[in-house]
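input
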Amino acid sequence: MTEKIKVIGIGDEGKQSLLSIYQQWIDESEILVGGERQLAFFPDYTGEKKVLKGGLAELVTLLSKETRKIVVLASGDPLYYGIGSYLAKKLDVDVYPYLSSIQLAFARMNERWDDAYVTSVHGRSINGLAQRINGREKIALLTDEENNPSAIAKYLRSFGMTEYRGFVAENLGGEKEHCAFYSLDEMETKEFSTLNVVILQKTEDVKAWPMGIDDEEFHQRKPEKGLLTKKEIRTLSIMALNLHESSTVWDIGTCTGSVAIEASLIAKYGRVYAIEKNEYDLENCRLNQVKFRTDFTVIQGKAPDHLGTFPDPDAIFIGGTAGSMEDILNTCCSRLKKEGRIVLNAVTIENLMKAVDGFKSRGFETTITLAQISRSKPILNLTRFDALNPIYIITAQHKKGEL
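output
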């Protein structure tokens, strides 16, 4: 029987971070796998060294065919944003963790971390970070050369998130360890070691935005103020989309971005993609993104153009079709994921019928809500009601058995 592969966590101080039994396993192994930095801690190793580069799939294929004793070295805790979880799913392994860089960073701060939000921008896009961390008291970030402390500070400042200060822990456990607090301004202008962890600490309270943001809060086109999906209709439409935290959402005809913004606040771990043909509406949309701290993708264009650049969605909101309903429905209905929903808002009976017929011909079933909303308005010391335009909210889903 082949011996299990041992995945051992190691600190920046090298051999000193290892238990004596771990050192013994390494000495007895015939293949030692790790990054160049980890392997450099063992210059006298007599077995075969394999440098961990590129994709892990190739490594798994290689290791699965080996009968020799194997040790894989990984930074800190291999199961904490490391290679350990991937290898454990593919191979027969035992994992022996060291302290994670996050643990060490909080220890250097003398700060508890059981209440911290931890995420990674190492090897992944920083896009969408704003809505994931907004309002959190304590955030720990694993970084890389591109998403370094300076880039993170610049990103936060671009969304006005100046209520945070940063703690940067460099070269934890190594000879060049350095840890210090910085304002975001200081972080943005300073150079740091590539081996670092960033902890953000909130120093003041900020406004939170619950579902159903008041219309007046949005930057809108003037003097034609009000060209956005009204709060009541927006709330009903978003509820109909049935979003979850990881939803991928399209917003077609986003205008000021009100639906995309509220969708982003729900789908914090998903992605929202919006398209708008009018440049002046896009300017307001971008202002609203900053105000409500929602980092979603928005492009200028007329749907269905450019929709091919978006990933397949779990939910689609169609606020306007600009005369291209058939082409838009062709794209949306063919790209929508299984169990997904499309919500289309129509103002006229003609567009209502065109949408319902269009969905039906493409194998979708629909439900329709006619929303007739009136809002109270003071008149002297009395109150009257002003009616908003009636809106048809059409929700479409794949018919069962036709996927």
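quick obs: The chain has a mean pLDDT of 94.
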